[in-house]
Amino acid sequence: MENIVFYFSGTGNCLKVAKTIIKELGNGEIVSMAKAGKYDLIKQYYTICFVYQTYFWGLPK
Ligand SMILES: Cc1cc2nc3c(=O)[nH]c(=O)nc-3n(C[C@H](O)[C@H](O)[C@H](O)COP(=O)(O)O)c2cc1C
């Protein structure tokens, strides 16, 4: 079963982390959260991962 990593990255750090995670997991893809609305999450994934940075001590809006 596939893996999927959703990421949000301003300057590239989280993109690099997302790429590293999917490389380690093997089978799957990375998706920008900006485009995630197009995704059909009815499909089953083995792993669903979210990568994002800290903005002002919390989650980015
Ligand atoms: C507006 C702004 C607010 C931030 N606030 C925090 C923070 O509260 N704590 C922290 O450790 N890093 C903070 N950072 C640093 C980012 O979380 C860090 O540089 C991160 O690696 C950026 O990821 P990206 O390259 O994927 O955008 C902030 C960066 C920005 C631009």
Description:
The chain is α/β, with parallel strands linked by helices. It has one domain (3-51). It contains one helix and three strands, in the order βαββ. A three-stranded parallel beta sheet has the order 2-1-3, covered by helices on one side. The mean pLDDT is 92. Flavin mononucleotide (FMN) binds at residues 9-14, 53-57.
Low confidence ranges: none
**C-alpha Rg (nearest Å):** 12 Å
Number of helical regions: 1
- Averaged pLDDT, please? 92
Instruction: Identify every distinct bound molecule in the structure, by name, code or SMILES.
Output: flavin mononucleotide
Classify the beta-strand content into a percent band: 15-25%
Question: What is the approximate shape?
Answer: globular
Q: Give the number of domains.
A: 1
Index terms:
three-stranded parallel beta sheet, 1 helix, 3 strands, alpha/beta, 21% helix, 61 residues, binds flavin mononucleotide
SSE blueprint:
Elements: E1 3-7, H1 13-25, E2 28-32, E3 47-51
Parallel strand pairs: 1-2, 1-3
This protein binds flavin mononucleotide.
Q: Nutshell version of this structure?
A:
The model has no long low-confidence stretch (mean pLDDT 92).
